[in-house]
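This part of the workshop introduces the protein records we will be handling. A record pairs a protein's sequence with a compact description of its fold. Comparing a sequence with its tokens is the quickest way to learn the format. The record below serves as our worked example for the rest of this section:
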Amino acid sequence: MIDDRFELVNRLGSGGMGMVWRAHDLALHRDVALKEVRPPDPALSENDPESARLLRERVLREARALARLDHPGVVTVHHIVDGGDGTYPWIVMELVPGASLAERLAEGTLSPVEAAELGRGCCPRCGPPMPPESCTATSSPPMCCCGPTGARCSPTSASRRSASPPV
């Protein structure tokens, strides 16, 4: 249980900056994606407290900037669970059904039309202007979700795993 509100259901994937979980929001009765932010070096807080503090500040700044976005190509950030100094935040996001672009590419080559459609969905920088602080994340294949309503870029760097059930 996270923040007395989010019940972890199953792990969706992991990447260089943490793990992403399917969680159930007990207050709103809906499933969400919940990113557990973890630095690449688990001992970062102990070995380099200043770097850990800067990482935490950067994650919070980026999550707040992304939460202000309203763009069809970007996954919505709903909430931040912040335990305060010395902790890493959890980022509560919209749960997008479908596979990642990396999973789709593993199935075979995209047609030019499919590649263009997915690219438009995963490249929000090509659309309406976005605040500069929100343009720090990359749009790598594991971070793009290919759902029934098109591609969406996840504002996290933790990818989904193909072994995960469809969401």
